[in-house]
Amino acid sequence: MSVEIAVKTETALPIPTEEISQTIAVIFEMYQIPQDATISVGIVDVQEMADLNRAWRSMEGPTDVLAFEGDDLEEILELRQTLHEEIPIELGDVILAPDVIAAQAPEFGSTPAEEFRLMLVHGVLHLLGYDHLIDEDAEEMEAEELVILQRLAELRGEDPLCVRIGPTTRHLFDKPDMYEREAE
User: Which of 75, 78, 148, 161 suits 128 as a labelling partner, its CA being 20 to 30 A distant?
Assistant: First the structure.
């Protein structure tokens, strides 16, 4: 497993980079992702996230997490079997904005670290094909997020039953002007 982490902000991270790598390793294990797959995690400031959100989603203002899918995992695995070759797997990029995440954490009754973990898991699940444009898909994605976050809590020695997430994945709750002050 290769995790490339690029920190492009002066903001202190709410969790250590080692925990970011561990989170991805746990997801790889749970979803049986080949260990030679790669994923990139970018951590950016509010302005860069606003720029990316405008460029890729045509939305003004920053968002908490963006996911840019890479290779289609199932397609690559089929090619590997057919060709009997080790074809590289690049799952894609997850971009996180810790200032945006910290600002929204109280709205969801969580800490910046809890919300950062959730957004990291959320982004990786997008790379694995999960989405939340309709309620049924959002509920499925949130259930998967909860299972992963509970597993991670166990590994940190915390009570997994204390992990809670709200309906954080529905795009109609995006508030593009919420972070306008910080972006200036």
Answer: 161
